[in-house]
Amino acid sequence: MTVVNRRARSPRGSGEDLREALVTATAELLETQDLNSLSVRTVTSATGVSPTALYLHFTDLAELLRAVKARFFGELRDSLLAAGGDVRALAKAYLRYAREHDGRYAVMFHAHRRTDAPATPAAELVEVGWAAFEPLIAAVRAVLPDASDDEVRETSLELWIALHGRAQLSVSMPWFELPDEDRYVDRLVRQIVGQPA
């Protein structure tokens, strides 16, 4: 006979605790499992609740995954804010987050290729995604005080695209010999932002 560890019944009014528990369990599962192996049953089993409990807080697995991505983007934002306002420090913090949390990074930027997938993500995910990059945009603005908002945005995006490319390669092809991270960041910031080392 199999014994299932059930989560203790929560007191009335503590539904938000279960929601957070589901997000946390999903985040932890995605540290070691591929996104494609995630299911309602694996999440609820890890949380110790029945599969129907998930639907009290999320419409479906995709909505739960958006909440997990939002948490990860929040963590990335916190990492960038902790790095200070220097463009190089922020770039290095970005790459460090991707390297130290490769499972989370892969989930954050996972792209569905199904034809029935929405063309754009949910509005709240777009909002937290942009919020994560506000520290980088602010640092670029500080270096280019005379640039227009459009120029600052484009320069910030060019910098992020280059950082993301390197981070994505380190996650998906860890065996690939990439340039030294510090030299890469120095060269990148010099080329895109025009800030000498």
Brief digest:
The protein has nine helices and no strands.
Strand content: under 5%
What is the radius of gyration computed over CA atoms, rounded to a whole number of angstroms? 20 Å
Write down the oligomeric state: single chain
Largest sheet: none
Structural class: mainly alpha
Number of helical regions: 9
- Please tally the β strands and state the result: 0
What's the overall average pLDDT, rounded? Answer: 85
Distance N terminus to C terminus?
65 Å
Structure notes:
By secondary structure, the chain is mostly helical. The longest helix is centred in the last third of the chain and has 24 residues, at 149-172. 66% of the residues lie in helices and 0% in strands.
List descriptors.
disordered N terminus; 9 helices; 66% helix; 197 residues; 0% strand; mainly alpha
How is the secondary structure organized here?
Layout: H1 15-32, H2 40-47, H3 51-54, H4 61-82, H5 87-100, H6 102-108, H7 123-143, H8 149-172, H9 181-192
Helix pairs in contact: 1-2, 1-4, 1-6, 4-5, 4-6, 4-7, 5-6, 5-8, 5-9, 6-8, 7-8, 8-9
